[in-house]
Amino acid sequence: MNFPAGLVKRIVEKTGTPVYIYSAQKILDNLGAYKKQFASLQPLFCYAMKANSNGAVARLLARNGAGADVVSGGELYRALRAGFDPRKIIFSGVGKTAEELAYALRSGILFINVESFEELEALERAAAGLKLKAPVSVRINPDVDPHTHKFITTGKIGSKFGVAFKEAGRLYSFAKASRHLEPVGLHFHLGSQIDSPEPYAKALAAAANFIRRLEKDGVKLKYLDIGGGWGVKEGSEMLPPGILARTVGPAVKELGLALILEPGRSLVAAAGALAVRTLYRKKSGPKNYVITDGAMNDLIRPAFYGARHPVIPLVRRRGKSVRFDIAGPVCESGDFLAQDVGLPVPLRGDILLVLSAGAYGFSMSSQYNSRPRAAEVLITGKNSWRVVRKRETYKDLVAGEINV
Ligand code: LLP
Predict the structure, then answer these.
(1) What pLDDT score was predicted for residue 235?
(2) CA-CA 20 to 30 A from 157: which of 2, 239, 321, 367?
(3) Domain containing residue 372: CATH number
């Protein structure tokens, strides 16, 4: 059990609720499973910081050999602060500003995943300004459907991400001809919560053809970055990474490029739970509600993607199971953490654990309804834990505001 009841009870007594609780061991186990299954390929695992950018989580991964995938100057700042080796950091995203590009170049990161011709020009200008040669990788849009939620599908033509192969050819020629650009890699990222290796295989086959053509044109790459996106089973454990390794392995070996993966969710989702407290129970016609102190501002995934997170009570009450929705105090009908849960109705004050909340939980949280953001805790041993982010206060809500 990642979240032993006795320990969780002590944590919530100390920190209050809502609180995110992460298991360091589980994060390391997940990284270990990736390393083991991909051993023959020796890839660099660049943790997608956006999944959970808490410094303690990031430091744990950095200390254990991971690199980082960042998508903003802020994430780059966090990654450097957490101790990731700059030579293991890559920068992705469709809209990097000139300042962000310069920051990445000054930091000496491994490469920058470029997503449009104009961005490549901006990168060249930034590199020229710093009298540097920028290491570039082009993000391909291979037009592959990853069969996932439309909001997290990125590798289909028509999405804002990447460039088609034809356009990519133009980007590589431009980079090759420039004194300030060095084409070093090729990147794709198909989407998130992908549950089959098939889309990766399809994209890889197309990318391999393209890479061979590039070689004929004198562009010799070093890195193949196949993105993140490997999913977790409905709300819990990561899908076994072995299937993915076995599927992409042969093609990657044949190409002879260094492999990079950008896992986010699969490393941290199951390692996190959101602990909330039952405030009130009520009925509305046929529906039963349990109102908790955690809400959509803390965990937006159920409201935004219709994501289903398993919920378990810290103490299981006796009595027959009843179906109810778990809703928060936010003034929106879309504010729910789970719908149609079947459990004995919790008592007021009971703690519920919303599972699989380690990824895109706190990192997507907000102060909507002027709710201070939750605390974050890292379980570091059998009986040890640390607060790794304090609960925000009312003062934090107004900290940046200026009275006029
Ligand atoms: N690399 C790139 C370029 C990405 O855009 C992403 C995620 C990843 C790696 C990591 O993907 P992962 O391994 O975590 O699936 N907020 C959504 C997920 C958005 C994913 C965005 N990009 C959710 O809560 O489901």
Answers:
(1) 62
(2) 239
(3) 2.40.37.10
